[in-house]
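In practice, a research group might receive sequence data for several interacting partners and want a quick structural hypothesis before committing to experiments. The following worked case mirrors that situation: the sequences arrive first, and a predicted assembly follows.
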Amino acid sequence: MKVIAEMLSYPFLVRAFAGGILVSLCAALLGVMLVLKRYSMIGDGLSHVSFGAISVAVAAGWAPLPVSIPVVVLAAFFLLRITENGRMRSDAAIAMISASSLAIGIVVTSLTTGMTTDVSSYMFGSILAMSRGDVWLSAVLSAVVLGMFLFCYHRIFAVTFDESFARATGVNVSFYNVVTAVLTAVTIVLGMRMMGAMLISSLVIFPALTSMRVFKSFRAVVISSGVLAVVCFCIGMTGSYVFSTPAGASVVLVNLGAYLLFWLVETALKRRIRWQPLKTGGKRTPPAGEEPASGSARKWKTIRPEGERAPYSAGEKKRP
Amino acid sequence: MSALITCRHVDFGYENHDAVIDLSMEVDEGDYLCVVGANGSGKSTLVKGLLGLIKPTKGELTVAEELRRTGIGYLPQQTAAQRDFPAAVWEVVLSGTLSRREARPFYLRPFYSADAKRLAASCMEKLGISDLKNHCYRELSGGQQQRVLIARALCATSRMLILDEPITGLDPQAIQDFYRLVRRLNRDEGVTVLMVSHDVAGIIGQASRILHLQQRALFFGKPEDYRRTAAGQRYLGGEGA
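A structural hypothesis for the assembly, expressed as tokens:
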């Protein structure tokens, strides 16, 4: 408590907290859509494009945000277009674009100012990056994202789950894709300077992946991602203050910790269900509602053939 | 028996090539029409055209008024991303009620209406998946997943279903169950069915009409007659040749 009160006495940390919470919330919600549509790498690609754009802007003496937001939005359009047309594999396209823009950024920077702390802070993030204007922009952005998820939630589900069906039932799929791309681009540009170009994509993918480990409905995954993102960000920032570690990297590590935790929970849940048959004298009828053909159940059957009792099983190990 | 969909010398295609050329056919109410043909013969393009996702480049496509009002239920080919999608069955089925026909000018609703929920429940009942309501879609078997998707399509309309290669990835038992289910929907519920499939031999016994597509329509008519054509015999392994 004392630590938090102390942290909040610095105005720049208050800004970092406010902006960061809003950006991670947006990134997590949009991330659910991106991860499920197999666009996980888009965040990574866009952050590199953003790095290139900011380097060019700094070298030319322009303000970074007004330059990089339109450039990144354009890049997002372009990436989505490629994916939809299917002319090129989207992962290859993203890798190509992200490496090229990173290279452009590095070359431009080294020709003009040289590799300064500025560049390093774009790469790995700086807690000082959030200005008052950024916080306002984050607030507007998250209002838009939250509004979209609240009012168009079912459309979002339809578009994410099955584009062709959504299109056939009259949902304007392209519109949703474009809106998602624009919002993702703005989120990434805003978050990048605090989290760093190298690390921002974790805000997009981690909460969704973590929630998908345990939760089984779309609604639960969306809600859990939003909550997780905010919680992880707060813990990470506090940790970075207490241990004087870089903010972006600390947040990513906390996210990784959450993922591992959820993974453990998932494993524990699965085991508990699968172990039940052992207690009834090794009867091998799967629990009601579970398909006998599902992956792990079948594996379990092959490991222990009919009528044969395993020397020991994990279920017995647990008993005292 | 009125025609739900009529095509007269229709071409469907993309920017600079036509995938379907000079197709004339009609789909009547209560039909069970199967579209067969090699890969790339324009089957999926035809489906998109019938759903109104692409416009015919030539000819005349007439869709009956009642179908335009209620829409067409659609079962797309499954994508890889769907197989591990974290969604409860009821979420998937409910998403079928988002049909454009009910769309109001301000469709900004955070919740589904009670009507939509009732409709979804009755569709799940029809397909015998009510007990799977709270299960996770990715944990179902292939056959159960197809049932969920059909329930979703039936939420959009109960008049006509378009199934695009529905048996891909199902095991033989599930394929038979699936055919039985579609036949029941067609016969008992009066749902008009248009199915795209590679499984000519499995389909010929139950379809009321066959359309063999190879850009142009090689054959359109009753399955008995199809057995006698050259195209049919090639696909059916030369029976009666």
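Before designing any experiment, note the following. Chain B has two domains: 1-72+162-241, 82-102+109-156. DSSP finds ten helices and nine strands in chain B.
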